[in-house]
Amino acid sequence: MFDTITFLKWLHIISSTVLFGTGLGTAFHGLASNMRGDLRAIVAGNKNVVLADWIFTAPAVIIQPATGVALMLEEGWPFDTHWILASVALYIFVGACWLPVVWLQMQMARIAEDCLTTGALLPPQYKRYFWWWFALGWPAFIAMLVIFWLMVAKPDF
How far apart are CA 68 and CA 46, in angstroms? Predict the structure, then answer.
């Protein structure tokens, strides 16, 4: 029923879907909870965003390159194929955006939790972290769309 290539393609597609979908979902959830201005919602939203990244995004981040390399080897694609090199470069770029986002999310969650516990208002630092978090999501989102296009079109440029 499943041969190796079909299984690898399926796993690669599923993990890319999880990676992209979780990114969209956490972006929406984090943005919506922060825009409400309700500290309890912000705390809950931040906790869920961080948790989703550990449960869904982190495994997908590992599975993507593993299945990508396995597919290259199984299908005989050379490592220097242009669309593959472009995909890898964009994937590294996405990771360079995601790693600070994870750190920012954890800091935002901690700050919001502290403010809820002490009754303090969110400090300006929180708002700076939030806007950096928001800003870093856009180039990563666009890069993921380009990676999807490269995987489907496999352009020879």
Answer: 31
> Tens place of pLDDT for every residue, the chain, 157 residues?
679 999 999 999 999 999 999 999 999 999 999 999 999 999 999 999 999 999 999 999 999 999 999 999 999 999 999 999 999 999 999 999 999 999 999 999 999 999 999 999 999 999 999 999 999 999 999 999 999 999 999 998 8
Alpha carbon of residue 59 to chain centroid: 11
- Cα(43)–Cα(106) distance, integer angstroms: 11
Residue type present at position 27: A
**Amino acid identity, position 41:** A
- Name, in order, each residue with C-beta under 8 angstroms of 59's C-beta and a sequence gap of 6 or more: 15, 18
CA distance 38 to 11: 39
Cβ(124)–Cβ(6) below 8 Å: no
DSSP code, position 121:
P
- pTM (predicted TM-score): 0.92
In one-letter notation, the amino acid at residue 109 is A
What are the residue ranges of helices labelled H in the chain?
4-36, 39-52, 58-75, 82-118, 124-153
